[in-house]
């Protein structure tokens, strides 16, 4: 499918396996529980869409943007990651999985990213600016030069992640000291 804007598509629980979508914007559509196995999305924008519990086995995303989307329980590890270019802005990302993925340079701007593992992920230069990362895990992740400016509720242990050149802002940056088994006080 090619085109400009696809308003309010009703793809909830639909079987879209093997379908190709290029140069289009899905606006306020529901893809909840849809089967996207082996589907391909190229230069696609999902704006205000619900992609909760979508099945992504062998799905390909190339230059795909998620804006104001709801993504719950999505296992992105099952996608074909070769040449994937993703971006997330103002999204709810809850209990998704990005572990062991190459997410270098991927923006997660102003998102609510809850209980989502980024274990052993390559997040070099990723941008989490303004995001709430409550319960998300970054164990053994490569966070070099990543941006956590104005991010909150993150839990990054500098002993178990690469953080050289990463950007953090106060007061949240104090959370980086949790991994050192020290006491903090006010004087």
Structure in words:
- By secondary structure, the protein is mostly beta strands.
- Helices cover 0% and strands 25% of the residues.
- The chain has strands at residues 5-7, 20-27, 40-47, 60-67, 70-72, 86-89, 92-94, 108-109, 112-114, 147-148, 167-168.
- It has a six-stranded parallel beta sheet, with no helix packed on it.
- It starts with a strand and ends in a 19-residue tail after the last strand.
- The model has no long low-confidence stretch (mean pLDDT 90).
Short description:
With 187 residues, the chain is mostly beta strands.
Helix and strand succession?
EEEEEEEEEEE
Low-confidence stretches: none
SSE-based structural type? mainly beta
- Count of alpha/pi helices: 0
Q: Approximately what portion of the residues adopt beta-strand conformation?
A: 15-25%
Mean pLDDT: 90
Describe the oligomeric state of these chains in a short phrase.
single chain
Report Rg. Answer: 17 Å
For the largest sheet, list the strands in their spatial order: 1-2-3-4-6-8
What labels describe this entry?
single chain, 187 residues, mainly beta, six-stranded parallel sheet, three-stranded parallel sheet, 11 strands, 0% helix, elongated
């Amino acid at each position: 499918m090619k085109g400009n804007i696809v308003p309010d598509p009703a793809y909830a629980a639909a079987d879209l396996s093997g379908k190709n979508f290029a140069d289009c914007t899905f606006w306020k559509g529901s893809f909840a529980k849809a089967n996207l196995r082996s589907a391909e999305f190229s230069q696609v924008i999902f704006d205000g869409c619900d992609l909760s519990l979508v099945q992504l086995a062998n799905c390909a995303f190339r230059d795909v943007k998620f804006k104001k989307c709801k993504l719950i329980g999505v296992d992105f590890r099952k996608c074909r990651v070769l040449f994937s270019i993703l971006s997330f802005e103002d999204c709810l990302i809850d209990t998704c999985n990005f572990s062991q993925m190459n997410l270098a340079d991927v923006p997660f701007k102003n998102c609510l990213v809850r209980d989502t593992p980024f274990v052993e992920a390559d997040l070099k230069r990723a941008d989490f600016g303004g995001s709430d990362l409550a319960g998300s895990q970054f164990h053994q992740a490569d966070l070099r030069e990543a941006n956590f400016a104005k991010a909150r509720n993150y839990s990054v242990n500098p002993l178990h992640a690469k953080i050289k050149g990463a950007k953090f802002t106060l007061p949240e940056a104090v959370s980086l000291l949790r991994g050192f088994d020290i006491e903090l006080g006010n004087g």
